[in-house]
Specification:
The structure is a single chain. By secondary structure, the protein is mainly β. It has two domains: 4-109, no CATH class; 140-168. It contains one helix and twelve strands, in the order ββββββββββαββ. The strands form three sheets. It has a five-stranded antiparallel sheet with strand order 4-3-2-1-10, with no helix packed on it. Strands 8-7-6-5-9 form a five-stranded antiparallel sheet, with no helix packed on it. The N and C termini lie far apart (80 Å). 18% of the residues are buried. The structure holds zinc ion (ZN). Residues 146, 148-149, 151, 160, 162-163, 165 line the site of zinc ion (ZN).
Length: 168
C-alpha cells in the first residue's frame, strides 16, 4: 500500500485541485496559475483512511468534492480558492462527475510535510582539541638525513654522527 494517495483535477481555468491522503490526513491544495505567478492554498482534514477514492462533481452551483472518510462522507465546495465544508450533503448527479487523475502530491506541498527528525539525529561534533594542541605544539623542524649514509641528523649538526660526512 502506498503511504500517500493523491488525486487531482482541473476545477477552473488555471485552477487545479489536489486531494492527497497521508497517514489519515487529507490535504486539499488548490494551485492557481496565472500569467507570471502561481499561488497555492492548502488545508488539511483528519479523515482517516479513505473508504474509496474521492469524487468530484462540477454542478450548476459549483465544484463539489466528496471525500469518503473513514467514519462518514465529507462534502466540500470550492469557494474562490478554498474548499469549504458543506453542512449537508448536496444533490449531485453522476453526469456532473469530474474525472480525478491519480497523482503525486504537488511539489508545493513538500515544505508543509512534517520533518522526520528520527533519521536526522544530531551528533555533537567531536572536537579533538588535545590532538590539535599536540600537533600545533610540535616544533617546526624538518628532519634531515645524511646524504651519505641516510642516518637522521639534527638540522644543527654540521657532521653526520654515523659516518662523519659533512652536512653543510
Ligand atoms: Zn652519514
Amino acid at each position: 500500500m502506498p503511504i500517500s494517495t493523491g488525486y487531482s483535477a482541473i476545477v477552473a481555468t488555471g485552477q487545479q485541485l489536489f486531494i492527497t491522503q497521508r497517514n489519515g490526513q487529507t490535504q486539499l491544495t488548490i494551485t492557481t496559475t496565472a500569467p507570471g505567478q502561481q499561488q497555492s492554498q492548502s488545508s488539511s482534514l483528519a479523515t482517516g483512511e479513505w473508504r474509496s477514492p474521492p469524487a468530484l462533481y462540477c454542478t450548476s452551483s459549483g465544484v463539489v468534492l466528496q471525500i469518503f472518510a473513514q467514519q462518514q462522507d465529507i462534502w466540500l465546495q470550492l469557494q474562490g480558492q478554498q474548499m469549504q465544508a458543506m453542512t449537508s450533503a448536496p444533490t449531485v448527479m453522476e453526469a456532473d462527475r469530474v474525472t480525478l487523475e491519480p497523482t503525486e502530491a504537488p511539489s508545493v506541498m513538500q515544505p508543509m510535510q512534517p520533518m522526520e527528525m528520527g533519521d536526522m539525529e544530531m551528533k555533537p561534533m567531536q572536537m579533538k582539541m588535545g590532538d590539535m594542541e599536540m600537533s600545533m605544539g610540535k616544533p617546526d623542524r624538518t628532519t634531515k638525513f645524511c646524504s651519505q649514509c641516510g642516518q637522521p641528523v639534527e638540522a644543527s649538526d654540521r657532521f653526520c654522527t654515523q659516518c662523519g660526512h659533512s652536512l653543510s
